[in-house]
UniProtKB/TrEMBL annotation:
Pfam families: Glyco_hydro_1. It comes from Gracilibacillus ureilyticus. SUPFAM superfamilies: (Trans)glycosidases. Gene3D superfamilies: Glycosidases. This is 6-phospho-beta-glucosidase. One of its GO terms (cellular component) is cytosol.
Length: 468
């Protein structure tokens, strides 16, 4: 039996439009929720201003200017040997306010060029339709709390699916959809933390996703549409039965989104919770059938860290990465930003998710945010990043070889330095490619290869066999 990564494995990297493109007003683009989030700093959240305040700095307005550098950047990805590039399309480039009847042709043309550049190098585009950039123009409808936004999204999705038919085969409907339970503004432009509001918005996104899956299959039977889970995985603090129960409760809070998208219905535990809390889903005739008929073809997820949960854990989801459990794992090291480094947890998570859903899996975000320095020779030695990725890839290989997990792709986050979603910082760098921009948006924007660039090239060339 053949061991190792399967032939055709989708090695690559992942970005988000609002974290890399910049050009926030060019070619007819409208404002999104990301465009009104100021820069924070380590441990300090970004401020949401809801309109542009000229006295403040908004990192997404310029980011790394991928909008104008995408050909150069994708050429560098191709030099590493990428088989896949996961990127998002910015909704407000296509429909500036989110609800127009006709799309903005200049926005579509930009992504024509991005996709064609990928295909020119033999890179498979993996397109995220919505990645934390709800149009501000939809706030007049209370954003995803309003069912009309489902139709606006479907118009947007249909536009993309028809325009890029035959060019894009892999799609993700919503980035990290369960972030609606931790950071509702990022997830969908929801200003309230009230659970009725967030669960109404979540239902509308789940419904929009299910309808998009059906539409994608009708437009092109070759389309593969996945969901994306913000990979919150938890261990119990102890074998105390209360800690075990709290861990299960924590995972239920996160995984019900996957349950709906992968199984096609709300799980009993969530429906009972709604009943206890008096939360009502805005169901219309045919909705349950749409959820059932719109299950995804694959499950993709981000993996950065694991949590420890116990009976002292609060489930209000504040703090680190949108989650604060009150516990740390003494067995694990931490990143510069306090995130637990747990390669073995990646194998555990792959098994956990496959046991639950029996769907092909993709890891579409994984990486180390760290402070990089340029030495006197102009080199960037990031052995810490290589070590982090090497150990995670080893655990992926074990999941394939030992556990039989059908893992079809791995797109590291982010292959080029981009602004942080949580803080807007540039100093929290993930890339194989350094971009000369600082936390205030100053710099030459020059691209420079780090040591990890050459290392990842060897990994891809060897289909994951050469990791040293």
């Amino acid at each position: 039996m053949k061991q190792g990564f399967p032939e055709g494995f989708l090695w690559g990297g992942a970005t988000a439009a609002n974290q890399c493109e910049g050009a926030y007003k060019e070619d007819g683009k409208g404002l999104s929720t990301a465009d009104v989030m100021t820069a924070g700093e380590k441990g300090v959240p970004r401020e949401i201003t809801k309109r542009i305040d000229e006295s403040k700095y908004y990192p997404s307005h310029q980011a790394i200017d991928h909008y104008h550098h995408f050909k150069e950047d994708i050429a560098l990805f191709a030099e590493m040997g990428f088989k896949c590039y996961r990127f998002s399309i910015n909704w407000t480039r296509i429909f500036p306010n989110g609800h127009e009847a006709e799309p903005n042709e200049l926005g579509l043309k930009h992504y024509d060029d991005v996709i064609d550049t990928c295909l020119q190098y033999g890179i498979e585009p993996l397109v995220t339709i919505s990645h934390f950039e709800t149009p501000l123009g939809l706030l007049q409808y209370n954003s995803w709390q309003n069912r009309r936004v489902v139709d606006f999204f479907l118009n947007y999705a249909e536009t993309l699916l028809k325009r890029y038919k035959g060019k894009v085969k892999y799609w993700i409907t919503f980035n990290e959809i369960n972030v609606m339970s931790t950071k509702p503004w990022m997830a969908g432009g929801i200003e309230s933390n009230d659970e009725q509001d967030t669960m109404t918005a979540a239902f509308h996104q789940l419904l929009a996703s299910a309808k998009t899956v059906q539409m994608a299959h009708e437009i092109d039977p070759q389309n593969k549409v996945g969901m994306m889970y913000a990979g919150h995985i938890a261990y119990p603090n102890s074998p105390d039965p209360e800690d075990m129960q709290m861990t299960m409760d924590f995972m239920h809070k996160m995984l019900f989104y996957c349950d709906v998208q992968c199984r096609g219905y709300y799980p009993a535990y969530k429906l009972k919770e709604f009943e206890r809390k008096g939360i009502e889903l805005p169901l219309h005739a045919g909705d349950l059938e749409d959820l059932k008929n719109g299950t995804v073809d694959f499950l993709s997820y981000s993996y950065y860290l694991t949590h420890v949960v116990g009976k002292e854990t609060s489930l209000d989801f504040q703090g680190l990465n949108g989650v604060k459990t009150g516990y740390t794992n003494p067995s694990l090291d931490k990143s510069d930003w306090g995130w637990a480094i747990d390669p073995k947890g990646l194998r555990y998570s792959l098994n956990y998710l496959y046991d639950r859903y029996q769907l092909p899996l993709m890891i579409v975000e994984n990486g180390l945010g760290a402070i990089d320095t340029i030495d006197e020779n102009g080199d960037i030695h990031d052995s810490y990043r290589i070590d982090y990725l090497k150990e995670h890839i080893r655990e992926m290989k074990k999941a394939i070889d030992i556990d039989g997990i059908p893992l079809i792709g791995y797109t590291s986050w982010g292959p080029i330095d981009i602004i942080s979603a949580s803080t807007g910082e540039m100093s929290k760098r993930y890339g194989f490619i350094y971009v000369d921009v600082d936390d205030n948006g100053n710099g030459s924007f020059k691209r420079m290869k780090k040591d990890s660039f050459y290392w990842y090239k060897k990994v891809i060339e060897s289909n994951g066999e050469v990791l040293e």
